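Good morning,

Both structures are done.
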Amino acid sequence: MIKNYLLLVALLISTVTFGQVLVEDFDYGTTAGDLTAVSGGAWVQHSGSTGPVAYVAAPASLTMAGYPSSGIGGHATYSGTSQDVNRAFTGISSGTVYGSALINLSAVGTGNYFMHFNSGGFRARVGAQDDGSGNVLFGIGASSSTLTYGTTPYSLNTTYLLVFSYEIATGVSNLYVLSAVTPTEPATPEATNTGSTGTTISAIAFRQSSNIPAVAIDGVRIATNWNEIMNNSSVPSLSIVTPADASVFDPGTSNVDVTFTTQNIDLMIAGNQVNVTVDANPTDADTTSPYSVTTMDGGMYNVTVELLENNMVVDTKMVSFSVAAITQVTNITDLRAGTIGEYYELTGQAFISYIVTEGTRNQKYIQDGAAGILIDDVAGTLSAPLNIGDGIIGLQGQLSQFGGVLQFVPTANIPGAATTGNTITPIDVTVSDLLTNGETYESRLIRLIDATFDAGDVGGMFADNTNYNVTVVGGTDMTVCRVSFGDEDIIGSVIPSTHVNIIGLGGEFNGTRQVLPRYASDIEDALSTEEFGTTSFSMYPNPSNGSTVTISSASNNAKDVKVYSIIGRQVINTTITNTLDVSGLQSGVYVVQITENGKSATKKLVIK
């Protein structure tokens, strides 16, 4: 995926700084909208896909007399539980980082943080809570989400200037709440907190979550001392706007634009200019923004940007970024053994077992002969039409994880299905199997056999985003049946009281193993679908490394046996009494369907 960063005129206006690391006045014109869009990419989403942070169009600035960023442009506002955004700046790795913002709260809840510094970890987390009397207490956290709150009550619908800081060497974060500009740093902060030390700070972030206040925010300033928060400077300087330091771009990125701004200097005067050096390449003198770095060979790139006044260097900024390499793997087992955050190409064919049609994450479950994985495609990168049963080849993406579930985030589109109409046969799994070997079954289509729902749930109706405990028949092993697909017909169907098999995707949430049924038909009456049960016959040896397998039952009558590969291809169809010839099967996992006297059962067979 090629990512180009363009510096828009509005962005130039909003990023003008005077010796500070960053000044954000939210001066993006007279059209309101999603902040990430109207800012031209200066603000980027890093979490959540709905409920965007909004830009309230100019003229709508928050004001405070004497504050340099007062009364300019519009402002930002948010109060929800989805999108989080950040704006990057040149990293600060020593001393103290100061941030400030004009804020006005119209409502406040039980308390949570809504703004923070960011880089290798969240620092100086600024939050607010109700004091129990309808007033506001402001607080700060360091590297923990637990905040220390001040004791001074502040009013809703009133503009305050918050100044927050993080001392890198000591981990101390302080918060000041000002009703008027103060030229020097007060001796006593409103609240203080201490956490992790040594974190380089390179972004300011707005956070949405439960219990955050309804906030209007404006005039964000980042600096390395109190004076530069409260005053403008006339010193010539430059700022690198994009990319953020240590950014990693997708494999195949062909160029990256380094955008920068200059302050307090006239570049039309001879001897005033910007020079850019990439790695050990000769300096490109007298350049303009954006400066395009060609990245066809991938790897790491170190960019130095120098500002010259009268042919003398007066400011230097550096940024490093890389283009990720991609590792080829032939199957999902090898993909799952990869490293979180790294990029891979799945060269073997994988089959789509389910497509999640609700929500905005464009998720798809895929599996091959031995493993499965969940595709999480928020960006909609896979735009070619795909259906359940399609086989796909050449999928590229980044390995990630959420709630313990391994995910694959696509970074390139594919032409479409390599094959269509493939049948995915569920693997028979007991509750004990799922609890013991859950990683093996994660994101694969399974049939959980011999289970019952809790007595307190039976007779009710399945609801979306709800967990139901299921227990092995005749035992104590228990796992979770989670209903996650809210637009399918399982919602509103009756929870049975009978002995059931549950077809679904193997799942997990923070260590708790789950089965995720898709349709009402995925909840099977075990007495009708497996009438003489897997305990009524034996199949051995299993696993097998020989040429035959013995299948016996109480009656030992003739048995019709069908064997399917894990993707549903029939590989054996025969009638036996006891002995099944498996000499023609390759190593792998198979599903064996046995029918005797009109009654059927299925069982998993492993060939070594």
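Second structure follows.
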Amino acid sequence: MRWPRRLASALMVVVLLVGPPLLLVRLVGWPAIGGPRVAIWGWVRDPLTEQNLVLMVVVLAWALWAFVAYTVTVRTAVRLWAGVRWLRRLPLPTPWQATATGVAGAAALTIATPSTLTSGPDHPATEVGAGYIHDRDGVDQAASSDGVVVVGGWLPRAVADQVGVAVGLLWLRRRLAYRPRRASEDADDLAPLPATVAAIQAATTVRPDSPPPQPSAVVGVLPPGFPAAGVGLSGPGALAAARGLLVTVLLAALRQDSARLVITRRAAQVLLGPEAAFLRPGSGLWIADTVTHATTMVTAASQAAPSSPGGRSVLILDGPPPDTLVTEVATVVVLADWPQATTWHVAADGYTQALDAMASGPRVCVLDPVAAADLLTVTGHLNPIVRDARPQPVPQARIPRQPGPRHDGGEVGRRLRARVLGEPVLLCDGTPLLLRRTAARQALVFLAVHVDGVDSHVMAEALWPGLPAHRLTGRLYTTLSELRTAVRAATDLPLIDRTGDRYRLHPDHVDVDLWHLRAAAAHAASTLTDPATAWRAVIDAYTGDLAAGHSWPWLDAYRETARRLVLDAYTALADTEPDPRRALAHLQDGIRVDPYNADLHQRAVNILAGLGEHTAAADLAERYKRGLIAAGLNPDHVLQVALLHGRTT
């Protein structure tokens, strides 16, 4: 309603500016008098004549119009000048900054997400056809050209993109470490990622068909102009900037083994609070007892295995280092004033200024303790299960009563089917219904995975993470209306059942392929007669990855849950198959579904070795190693990943 009001206001201003002069000129003519002295003398002698009264009214009318014109002119000039000043203050990147940002963004955008890395010859990712509207709901609340705003901080765009890369690697590691038919041991792997991570994912876009990036140096993610020797941090944003630097370097360490960050225990406690007790070293993070211990560690490490050029170690210390030589091999960040080096005053929003210079420094990543801890769960340095001990809901492996023919005067034989395994589509009697907004398809899949329904606020926060609460209700209503409208054009059957503030797909009118998969898996796991047939039914029910081709922030856990059901089926058939070659065929089918699972590859290699086909076994192991490298995983970390989840392979 703003534009109609603005248009009416503009028309009113035009009428006030143009109308009075036209009316006055038409009625009394242009203001003119024979001579100022004569007119004034005549008004003094006889001020109440008809001519003098008319003249006074005309003068007052012109004066009022001049005041209105002056006010409009001044307000317009002020707004134009404000726009000019904003354009003059707009920070334009230098050629070096533009090049560095482009390289970092290209590197972050080129890694494939888990949803697409699973897409193979048997399960291709389907492109969205013409006629769909790719709405970016949830992106506008946080993203901008230079950074991403989240609750608790601000991240440069390149760092936010690296968070998306880290999320993809995290889910690949979880897939790698999963051991089929041991769901109780691997349930922790399905823990959802924190809200901060979901908000960053929603605010950034990742191309689903891009090759993985090459490792980048640590300096590529440090702020431009960051002193090589290091800085001391002061001001209201000092601790937040140190947390941002901690997360930034550890994100880079996921892609570069030579990257090192050393932090003292005291500094970790100051930055993270109680979460520091659960901080675990590894993957580029070293924890030192004291400042002296930290400087000794990094000096010894640099002498034993010098890092690559541009990959200097980073030290975060709670006090100045006693040895100035450490700045030759590391970038030191001190959580206090540092008289021997540059000290930056950091504002709460991340803008910096050197205390010994008048020029402003770069804007750095700033995070509060909660946001920093959320991102450290993605890097693997904080266990999300330890941070949040609340039990996670387990999807119900059942299928509601399915729709049958109607005999109540409605449309006989009409039925709706939601196909969410593969490219999501809603069908009525086999005919696809057009859903023009991607948010509508996302809502369809979200309701499909929550067979018992979900509260509206939970659904809205999952679909649009990071948006203010007052903006969620309208978006959810619009999205569900899109679904209802698409169905209403084909049938009178209700698609969505609402009870209070809880929504679900109507179990009496909608048939969902995911529900059949869950029911088949539950039956196969509990049957005592003919289990092979039951497991084959699970395989037949799995027609592709859940919502293939999409990378919504909430989707990974449910996609992995569905994938593990079919991996369990292939493994069960292989375990009960007396013929090793047929067992090998089942394992190979499972590998096609998940080419990153280490357990399936190990089983296949063992069978090949037992058959005496050592060359084939070596070839399979080598292909698996090359696949991990192409995805950005280090094959040498396979055992380490399994140990981090409390088991060995």
